[in-house]
Amino acid sequence: MAPVARAPPVAVTPRRRVACAGTRARDSSDAVGDVARRACLLFAPSVAAALGRRAAFADEASVKIVRDVAGFGAKEATSKSLVLVKYEGTLASDGAVFDTTLGGRVYATSSSGVGSVSIAPAAARPVVVNLSSDAPVPGVPEGLRLGIRGMRVGGTRTFEVPPELGFGSAAARSPYATIPANSALKYEVTLLRLSDTGPDALYAGISRCGLGGASQMSDGCASVEPME
């Protein structure tokens, strides 16, 4: 396969099914709320509606890669891959951060009432993303999956996502900001691990960092390095 940076943009049709899993109530002292927040946006119903409305326009939409630093991995990420990544998502219009795994920011909470934010900043924590379009999860738009496909472990990619492949024509609330309707997005992603066999392979050799309950350790998450 030719490097993605030289390939033409890929047009896709987002699926309409929306799964909302892994959510749980959390208080402001929960150090792992940044994991659950990606599993379900606070306004998930609006995301589901947006997915349905934008389907007619998806065949004209594409992800635009603006910067691509090649990784050292032997395999490219495909639609069948699970990946461990760190990323930051911003609004293309003004650069406002709406989602990040890099930590250091307070985030919106759903258990303390509308407008409430965490007391402590979120910890840095890489997240697992399933690149298949067959089971979309609110908070992980199709454009993010598309932008990661073709990357190799150790690579960093910056790409722009049009509204049709982002959160569509309805406003959505994310951990760090409200995403206005019809917003173009920008992501910068580093691919840390890649697996075609399951999530356990993504955490091989990683200590003091993982997906788990409220008592899980996150001390080692910031130091996770790319490895194949």
Automatic annotation (TrEMBL):
Q: Does the keyword Isomerase apply?
A: yes
The gene is FBP17-1
Return the Pfam families for the record.
FKBP_C
Taking the record's annotation, the residue ranges forming a coiled coil are none
Protein's name in the database = peptidylprolyl isomerase
The reaction(s) catalysed by this protein are:
[protein]-peptidylproline (omega=180) = [protein]-peptidylproline (omega=0)
Identify the enzyme class: isomerase
Keyword tRNA-binding part of the UniProt annotation: no
- Annotated source species: Ostreococcus lucimarinus (strain CCE9901)
Q: Which domain of life is it from?
A: Eukaryota
EC numbers listed for it are 5.2.1.8
